Amino acid sequence: MNKKRIIIIRNSNNDNLSSSDRFPVLLASLLASNNYEPIIVSQSPRLLSYARENSIKTSRGRWFKRQNWSGKYALLFPVYFIWQIILTIWYWGLFVKKQPDIIHVQSRDDFIAATIAGRLLRKKVIWTDPEELKYIWKNVDRWFKNPVGKFVYFAAKFAHTITVFSENERMLINEDIAAGGQVWQKIKVIYNGVIDIADQYKNNDKDKSFKFCVISHLTIDKGVSEVINAFNKLSKEYKGIKLDIIGEGQEEVNLREEAEGNNSIQFLGAQNEISKYLGNSDAFVRPTYHDGFSLALIEASMLSCPIIATAVGGNIEIVKNNETGILIHPKDALALYGAMEIIYKDSTLRQKLASNARKQYEELFQLDKIVMKDFIPLYEESKK
Questions:
Q1: Contacts of 221 (CB under 8 A, 6+ apart)
Q2: Same domain, 357 and 371
Q3: 333-345 and 347-360 helices cross at what angle (nearest 10)?
């Protein structure tokens, strides 16, 4: 049987590989084991290297360094328009050469150029929104604002399907565009997920202390300050507990000052292998003020790690209060303290939350099942 060729396109400004950058490579790896021949197209050396490490074919893409076209830069829209013409011609040549069956686009400029080039060649085009369309389509209904967003919205009319990672993301997009229109009808929710690697990360930490874990950028809006304040109080009342903070950011100095004198708090910096730390933790805390669709929560569920999270954004689609985790209001250190105390003291509750979260992961968020159940049928449908 001939393999179906799919070109997956992803570009971004990220210096490091974000979850949105890893997703196309994980998707491609799973497609490769299901009779597809995926090719990753990107300008990012890190993403291309990551793809090659996973034995995925790659092609170097094209990229315009300026990505901010708002405010005074909107006057430069003619330059952007010319760039899109050049990029469309480039993609047309790439598609003629590679002869893909499906084109799967996952970044803004490419939403326009790759879609137009693909449709000119009568290819079927699918978009996956890396949680950016809610920003791209801001003020798209106002004639004097956001010309780039209007251009992306025009291109969306030619996409076969637009997939988003959560109902929350779909709702936020709905605030920017008229529900019921041609573009809105193309939007389909396909949950993001992670591959099941729980067997590789069973708890083998010799440290028997009860360990809370935070994985986050260290910025004000991630709520790490509230975790430190809650833990400072908790660790005075209960001995033998620890808090690991994984990540880096502009608030790190201030957060270290808040944690000063508490030797039970460790700042471990940015880490690539977060499963290792989640697997050795007794509870995962995500206290952010706002959120998209957190893969860290999915990974904690996969590893049967009890969760405390704020009831914001896509978190409420992953965490069901007192069933798969504990939900609290953001910016509330007292509520966070209470949830951490309950998790620490109640081993029966921890076991229940961990077990239910794992079951939910297997049903909804296991990436290989998502690819088989949702993406492959979408590709097959799009070829009709």
A1: 288, 289, 290
A2: no
A3: 100
Specify the number of domains making up the chain: 2
The number of angstroms, rounded, from the C-alpha of 147 to the middle of its chain's C-alpha atoms is 26
Coil vs helix vs strand at 17: coil
pLDDT for 205: 61
Shared-domain flag, residues 242 and 334: yes
207 and 149 in a common domain: no
Confidence of residue 1 (pLDDT cuts 50, 70, 90): low
Residues 219 and 327 in one domain: yes
Residues 149, 204, single domain; the answer is no
Report DSSP state, residue 269: E
pLDDT tens digits along 305-337: 999 999 999 999 999 999 999 999 999 999 999
The pTM of this model reads 0.91
Beta bridge partners of 102: 6, 124
Q: Are residues 247 and 136 in the same domain?
A: no
Domain that holds residue 238: 198-365
Which contacts (CB < 8 Å, 24+ apart) does range 113-120 have? 113/84, 113/87, 113/88, 114/9, 115/155, 115/156, 115/158, 115/159, 116/88, 116/91, 116/155, 116/158, 117/88, 117/89, 117/91, 117/92, 118/91, 119/158, 120/92
